[in-house]
């Protein structure tokens, strides 16, 4: 079945991510409508997405019986009410991360969707980054042994606020870098390793730009103790571990040098990866999965490095570590919508790339990171 789709919002998320990805799967989705309140936004839609209808109110979207799926790409504080209205109108929804500013709101939406037999898909696209897919492959192959230290960065360089009118630069619910960049890193950690046993948050205003309570840098530390838990993480990695694991997540808007994305250490190897996944920049440049086979392929100049020793070696007399470059896996943002279509066809939320309950846990940890930072103490989970 081909599902008719409406998008709420006309920002970067609409034009760079959702519209190109949806249009690359014409056998699964048809982008029919965009909510654009301002005349200039409506004109932009006409220029960039000819043939797509614009409406000025959410009521019009919800009243349109032909629309099956609504993509909510609006400011975080609007997600809850807009998602609730769409669900009550019988629409499946995709919501930009974070699902809502609070876990309580997320719980309400999850309950409502289940009561109506509808799907909530949260756009945590960084699970499909080239670098994470490469790291996951190395871990699955056992080349790191048991992971003991995991450091992940998401850095940018911007010494000014974009604009007073840009919602992400305002002290509003769901604002700040923990919810913006940090939510990606927290989601990736939960995806790989499951829920931690404690969290410590530190937030900073490195640029000292008002409002000072809106952090522009953060460090979030997640601790995982030895565990005999059964089962696997969402990434398929075992939850049981003999050794403790420390996860350090960092984000900054004052990082000028080359971005060190991952430093991951295990008892048999170490993985280092610089650079950033190319898909966002490629989509901004106008590439799409439908017409550009190189979308998601990283430059070999930023290939990961791996130092490893054989798992079976005598650890009292380990050999010199083998050093090699690891060719990057291809990034696959389009898989988000492939998973969604599969879930819609089978009426099965377990087929989604990101379970709404996982997205809810991301919000909970973002909130706890802020609480920890304010109290200057570690919070046990």
From TrEMBL:
A single MF term (Gene Ontology): oxidoreductase activity
Segments forming domain Gfo/Idh/MocA-like oxidoreductase C-terminal: 138-381
Gfo/Idh/MocA-like oxidoreductase N-terminal domain boundaries: 4-123
Entry keyword set: Oxidoreductase
Family recorded in the similarity comment: Belongs to the Gfo/Idh/MocA family.
Protein name as catalogued: Gfo/Idh/MocA-like oxidoreductase N-terminal domain-containing protein
High-level lineage: Eukaryota, Fungi, Dikarya, Basidiomycota, Pucciniomycotina
